[in-house]
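Subject: for your reference before the review

Hello V.,

The reviewers asked for a structural picture of the protein, and I figured it would be easier to keep everything in one thread rather than splitting it across files. Below is the amino acid sequence we used in the manuscript, unchanged from the supplementary table.
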Amino acid sequence: MWTDTRPAVEMPRLFERGGDLISFAGGLPDLDVLPLEAISSQLSRLVRLGGRLAFQYSTPHVAKALVPAITDLMAQEGAATTAENLVPTGGSQMGLMAVALGIGTPGETVLCQTPAYPGAAAAFRTAGLNLHAIPEDPGTDGGMDPVGLRETVLRLRAAGHTARLLYCNPTFQNPTGATVSVERRKELLTVCQELDLLVIEDNPYGLLAFDGGTTATLQGLDPDRVVYLGTFSKVFAPGLRCGWISAPAHLAQHLRRTTEVMSLSPSALAQAALAAFHTRNGWTALVDAYRHSYRERSTLMADALERELGTTGPWSWERPTGGFYIWLRHREGVDTGRFAAAAAAHGVSFVPGSHFGIDGEHADALRLCFSHVPRKRITEGISRLAAAFDAPDPLPEGGTR
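And here is what came back from the structure prediction:
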């Protein structure tokens, strides 16, 4: 069986809730901003007039009515696509799995921006691919270093490895919240062109800048070299499980066949619901409402961190300018997994940084998500977290201090 030949893959437990737990773990959107009454009315009309189609199997294509909703979102970040280049998915996670299975070859190496989204690492590893970190740039752009990328690819190829795929999440990255500048994106794409690398751009958060600004996508800068993963989970709702791949023409049909094997057909109901919403409402008001909500929550969390942890102590972080996350790093390199039990005892949760490493790195960090926590509980949650950081270390098993 394939499970005997591929390494075990584990995803962090992100969505556990209940009791008095304040969860800073899972990246859930704030669905309080959804105009549920309007959506309910649209769904009712959709089911009444077209239910027999909406509840039926469909073809492995993005529905014609949904294409403008996708092209509208992508155009806001300088990207463009056509119906022929679009492949429907059940969210970005399915898109990652489809790309890993449909484009990757078992045993080859995927260059990966780190810290990395665990779902991407899990998808690539499940498909039998190996991951290799792109060297980080200590400069202001952070993240991927173009010179280091070139050297790494050449070194891997010289050692006999196949290295032709690069995965990244360059805008409000999960987990750091960092955004790669346009100039740095162009430098990276120049290296990719030189070395004939295909880029997999994962972009769930690109429209969620708190100031309403956008950054040109890699797909918009070089559409023939980029496979773009989009999703409605962060700008509408994850429960519909609806996303898309925008791929160069020579890859789109192959990816469409892969997704057909995975799901047989996309949800006609989900696609129709999203198309109906966009036709009647557009995206501007809803995306602005999300931005406003996340800006407020981000400020509450960052302010609370400054009060509870200070700015010169062992913890460092950056105030986010968009997205869902704040990335804390321990200046003395302490493994943040040691705080997990104390945090649970204090009724708060986070994701240790080790979940975002691909080879044991980033254990000295942790990710906090502010997007879904009720505003009035964010300050309390950070207070609980600070108390967990100050709690005595647990005794070694069977031992004494």
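For the response letter, the relevant points are probably these. The first strand starts at residue 22 and ends at 23. Residues 17-33+285-390 form a domain with the Aspartate Aminotransferase, domain 1 fold (CATH 3.90.1150.10).

Happy to draft the paragraph if you're swamped.

O.
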